[in-house]
Amino acid sequence: MRGQVAALSGQARLGSWTAWRAAVDKWRPSVDRLFPLQNRTSGRFERQCIGSEGWTGTIWAVDDIRLGTALRQIRLRRGLRQSDVARMAGASRATILRIERGHIGTLTVDVLRRVAASLDVRIDLIARWRAGDLDRLLNARHSQFHEQLAVRFRTLPGWVSRPEVSFAIYAERGVIDVLAFHAARQMLVVIELKTDLADINELVGTIDRKRRLAVQIAQEQGWSIGPATRVAAWVIVADGATNRRRIAAHRAMLRSAFPTDGRGMAGWLLDPAVPVRALSIWSDARPGNVGAGLASVRRVSTRPRAVAMAPSRTAPRPDRVNRPSSPSPSRANDLRASI
Q1: Parallel, antiparallel, or unpaired: how do β-strands 159-169 and 121-125 relate?
Q2: 169 against 17, higher pLDDT
Q3: E-assigned strands of 183-310?
Q4: Alpha carbon of residue 245 to chain centroid
Q5: Is 178 within 8 Å of 161 (Cβ atoms)?
């Protein structure tokens, strides 16, 4: 495995703060020896985090050798043999030996994570790109989606909108893609933008959770939220063949969860009298954007280059000379296109 691997060490799902502090104090001497301060700040990073799955600890970016050394020190601290770790991870002792020596290039990520999990260590990967900002590349289509929707809302009377509204209400944490408010009608709308439809069940659950918290989230925006404020939900999916197939495959479920479609939303935005739950496909058909699309690219196809055929140097035999026949119109067009 080439590149850098982020080794996230720490005890998962500890029952109390006292137990967590005891675990940190227990592992701190080994961690400080393995990851000195000058290594953390020179091309690497350290960050305290609280994971969504209950994991709490410190993140260090390490290379292959340092990762192997860290796992070995944790194994020794816990009084485990290599054969013990191999049995818990469902791997061979030779695999554990290779990992501890830093020779993980031939191992799969699944094997490495199983070995680390047997030592209560979580492994995450860090992707780095030579060409520049990888986050900007991954979020380019989503940002373009945001821009087009913001332009649309600026043309609608009575609406104000906020993009990327984050919230943290007790255990509920997340980000609303677009939160819009119509003061005259006291209508909030939670908008979820999807360039890819990956998990339909997760989508329905997420939009329902955000809709329930929308009033409390909107109060922090300084809007005139009152007891008569109602909440609508709108899922906008980028146009694409894959997204359309997934919508068709779950048509009954999606129509039950989101009865209103794009045609109904066009009139509703002008007069949001009642709350709705809608799903629509956003097709960017402006002349300057035809062919760009907002959905993710699934495959790359290239057009075959026309190959100029050299004339044959071998003269045809007199008894095999065929009379030329006039090609059909479609065949003639194909021939002209290939020249």
Answers
A1: unpaired
A2: 169
A3: 187-194, 230-238, 277-282
A4: 20
A5: yes
Termini Cα distance of the chain: 47
Fill in the DSSP letter of residue 57.
E
User: Do residues 100 and 69 make contact, with C-beta atoms less than 8 angstroms apart?
Assistant: yes
Going by pLDDT thresholds of 50, 70 and 90, the confidence category of residue 292 is very low
Cα 127–128–132 angle (5° rounding)? 135
Burial class from Cβ neighbours inside 10 Å (0-12, 13-18, 19+) for residue 247 reads: middle
DSSP state of 42: S
Structure-token pair, residue 218: 């909107």
The reply to whether domains 5-125 and 136-289 share a CATH topology is: no
Nearest-angstrom CA–CA distance, 19 and 48: 17
204: three-class secondary structure by DSSP: helix
Domains of the chain by residue range: 5-125, 136-289
Structure tokens at 209: 């959770």
Q: What is the pLDDT of residue 265?
A: 92
Residue 91 has pLDDT above 50, yes or no: yes
208 residue type, one letter? D
CATH class, 136-289 region: alpha beta
Cα 279 off chain centre by: 20
The structure tokens listed for 290 are 């035809």
Report the CATH fold assignment for 5-125: 434 Repressor (Amino-terminal Domain) (1.10.260)
Q: Is 99 exposed, middle or buried (0-12, 13-18, 19+ CB in 10 A)?
A: buried
Q: List Cβ neighbours of 214 (8 Å cut-off, separation of 6 or more).
A: 176, 179, 188, 190, 231
Per-residue pLDDT reduced to its tens digit, 108-163: 999 999 999 999 998 887 777 665 556 666 667 778 888 888 888 989 999 999 99
